[in-house]
User: Fold this.
Amino acid sequence: MNDSTIRMRDSILEARNIVRTTDFVSLSKDERHHIVKEGQTLLDKLDAVAQKYLVVGLLGGTGVGKSTLMNALAGAPISSASHRRPHTDAILIYRHNDTPLPFVPDSEIAWQEFTHAGETARQIILCDLPDYDSLLSEHRRQVLGFMEHVDILVWLTSPEKYGDSSFYEFLKLVPKSEHNFYFALNKSDLFFDGKSSEEGFEEMRKVYADFQEHLRKVDIADPVIYTISAQEGFGEPTLSSWNQFPSLRQEIFRQRVLKEVKNIKAANLDKEYAQYLSLFETELVHLETMHGILDHTITMIGTTGGEEEGLIQENIYSVMDENIRSEIRSKIDNISILTGPGYGVAALIQQWKYRSKVQDWAEKSLFGFVTQRISKVFQRRLDNLKNKIMGGIMRGDAHRTMAGQVADILKPEHYTKNFEEKLEQYVNNQLISFHKARHFLFRTSQYIVYLFVLFGLIVALAGKTAWQGLFENPSLAHMLNFILTAFYNLFSPAGLAALGSYALINLLLGFWFYRRYRNLIERKIDEIIKSFVENVGELWQEVISHTTATLKEYDRALGMTARALSELNKIDT
Ligand SMILES: Nc1nc2c(ncn2[C@@H]2O[C@H](COP(=O)(O)OP(=O)(O)OP(=O)(O)O)[C@@H](O)[C@H]2O)c(=O)[nH]1
Ligand SMILES: [Mg+2]
Assistant:
């Protein structure tokens, strides 16, 4: 079987394989069944065509090396000297064991066949034609008749015999238009026998030109002549540079391929094959259209995805009103990070606030309500995205089934399944992390300020003399004096006034720290809301990238089928 038959055969097998394993949108089950059956029919026809063989006729005088050339072509000793002709004008036919004789020679012709196992000549039938001396006799008509079965004729001669006039006389008798003629000057090794290679080449050139001239005289204007040594071609592993035996062999095999291509065409198999492949054309068009649409859709998701994310974020911000802030505030309120007067102020204010609102908040969680709302917004944006995708696909004229497949693989509800829980979990984690934080700086700053004020009170109470005494002579006695004086002065009118100022300063500081605490809480609320929005944004991004990846994967699968189908089309018979 030649290359194009093999390729056509493989392609049909591949086509059947694709049909069996792929879901085609444009082909019904029956149609697919039909394709498989058609494929088989085509394969059978192809097999029938592939049974055709090239018939090579060898013509030449006695002893020019016909048998040796046949052995060299077959790569095996298929013809031996023991193959004596029953009659000098009989035709010897050499065929492979598995190759049936594709023709029946005329009954008037004397012929004998020999089978062989030479693999290289499996599809080449070699016919050793009688010496033309005998052909010029009464059997000429029969032999010329036999030549109808012959595809190519190899005219073989040798340096000793190329000048024989009978060779050219017979050549004149054979109708040239019907055959491919090849001429071979065998035993060319004799040119180099006992001579230098220059002399050999010179001799060869001369004989070649002379042979050409002879051929021209019998109207073979442009003869193809091979200078060969069949003996070398059969026995030697490497050939001399001048030995054109490989070219001759290659040409014969090329002719066999051409003949098969011709057969395929003659049997109209090329057209049938093209028609067979056209069954996939519609599918291919659908696949290509869908590929274009998906490409476009994926780009669209890139831009729309960003816009939608913006919309979602705007929506969340609008939902996060003062009520939500209050709820977050109530959840992260932790006045234990305040100390002293600050804590007192905070406790009092809260006592007063809680009395009016605490019941409301205990009953329902506004935040749960918000996550529900946001989940709905998210779902709406998802639906919107899916609608845009599906809209684009429908407008792009995708096949119904393919559009359905895309709708199936895009399941937005997958993403919103645990969406609310995820959001609540996220917020709770944020709240817990605030509670866990130690707020070390804030706490320390309060202690320092309050201690400083207390220190100021004690110094004021002790008076200038006591603290100067302690400063100049820091002894235990002066220390005691300093403390006792302060204590003593506490109950004097000046001391009470100092105490009053101290209380007032502490109260003011308490308010001041309380305000700082409130600011801290508000900043935290902002932070929680912002990270919440970002978290929703990330979830959205996940949806976008997952959707894109899903579509790309689908596109890739379609692309593979499309490629496999267009590969089938590439075979050229
Ligand atoms: N030097 C040389 N001798 C060759 C070559 N090819 C064949 N011979 C020899 O030529 C002789 C005849 O070769 P065959 O192949 O039997 O020739 P043939 O044309 O089949 O002869 P018949 O069947 O008797 O007509 C043998 O002794 C071969 O060894 C070659 O390329 N070079
Ligand atoms: Mg022979």
In short: The pocket of guanosine-5'-triphosphate (ligand 1) is lined by residues 60, 62-68, 81, 186-187, 189-190, 229-231 (CB under 6 Å).
